[in-house]
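Look at a sample.

——
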Amino acid sequence: MKRFLVFIPFLIVFATRAQHAEIPLDTVVTSFHSTVIKGTPLKYKAQTGTMPLFDKNGKAKASIHYTYYQKTGVKDLGKRPIVLSFNGGPGSASVWMHIAYTGPKLLAMDTEGYPVQPYGIKDNPYSILDVADIVFINPVNTGYSRAIRDEKGKIDKKYFFGINADAKYLAEWISTFMSRTQRWTSPKYIIGESYGGTRVMQLAYELQNSQWMYLNGVIMVSPADYLLLRTKSSEDYAVNFPYYTAAAWYHNKLPKELQEQPLEEILPKAEKFALRELLPALAQGAYITKEERLAIASKMAHYSGISKTVILRHNLELPNTYFWKELLRNEGKTIGRLDSRYIGIDRRESGEKTDFNPEIGAWLHAFTPAINYYNNRVLNFKTDVKYNMFGNVHPWDFSKNNARENLRKAMAQNPYLQVFVQSGYFDGATTYSAAKYTLGKIDPSGKMRHRLHFKAYKSGHMMYLRAADLKSANDDLRNFIQQSSQNIGAAKY
């Protein structure tokens, strides 16, 4: 493997101050690799480094860390799609999809997504690099990305940390990146996981309306929609309910006649009940009759594995947090939030909330050593600055959240723009049923329904950690990219 280290003048200044563990403002390390994807050999170039974010006056505001994978030997970049990838949080590094989903390397885990030792990485035989180049971008205070302090040593948090501010500065940075890499003519995609779903909804609009950059696709992986998420509204409780059915099915807690059916056959029944019966019942509040309340509670118990008594005590409003504690309470266990296949053990079996999320510990256990090893030893990006798996981006401004509507506007303005959502059935944080609901709400008119696509998998928040879903989810991405970038005709209605 060949490596080339390119120093840009900014680096020289920072190098004399290495003892302060400051990240270079503008630098890149280039290396060349080969792999095999879906049985076909592929050679590619990896560029990892930092690039400045400039404000309207041309002054550097931050140093943004990225990793850019480009297939070599491509003659016409205008026909080669490019995917810009983000994770969520807010405050999460773009590490999860980088070394576990779409990138050319995978961290070492077992086939169900549990950590194994020795830690390390291996080739990803299902990466989408065969059909698209990929850029993994770390927003400010995540990964190695850092804001630049002003003359008083302060960081302008409002410039970075909020739904609208985040999309605005990332759009500016992406525009600079596209110019530097000469990718303006390529079919363009943005993908975001979890909070990244809200990020890319808003970013699609921001790119079109402030940078005049039009996309072919917006991809949301287990998206968080804050117009619904944790609102504790009737809509919130009802829309999330089918996830209870999925988690209970996985842990064998449903009645026999349901448990014996394939998951994909029982979930449509739970979804129909949630939207056509549970939601209207919750909307009645105090005015629901006793008979209706009992009938709804019985059906909820039937589809959730939670007792009718417990459901009635919660006035039919069963929180996710309680469900994670309650489903396996009699076995002395809890279930995971982001992936309910994972099992936890609390100090006490009593209580309304779990002590911890077992999946997070398992994932950090594996991802943290893997990404640090990969950056340092394989990509040869060396720095004393800490790689922030989760960075301090708070307080985050969630006000003026029009991301969902702004994505609709972007779609209406751009006939090329397609939307694809991927979710895991066992994700209890941003549930698959909530993701489907959000997808439908993007276009209330239904006139762009044919440009909205959804797929769910038998896994959790990061469905790609399960080996079977790593293959199928990447194949679905590959098909989406090809179908929305090839032979698509003129952009008109």
Remarks:
- The domain at 3-226+378-483 is CATH 3.40.50.1820 (Rossmann fold).
- The longest strand covers residues 40-54.
- Confidence is low (pLDDT under 50) at residues 1-18.
- The two ends are 48 Å apart (CA to CA).
